[in-house]
Amino acid sequence: MRLFVDVDDTLILYDVAGEQHPCGLVYGQAYTVNEELIKYIRWFALEHPDALVVIWSGGGREYAEHVARLAGVDNIGAAYLCKCPDTFALVEEDSIVFDDQEIKVPARVWGPRDVCQVPVV
Ligand SMILES: [Mg+2]
Question: What is the CA(70)–ligand 1 centre distance, in A?
Answer without folding.
Answer: 16
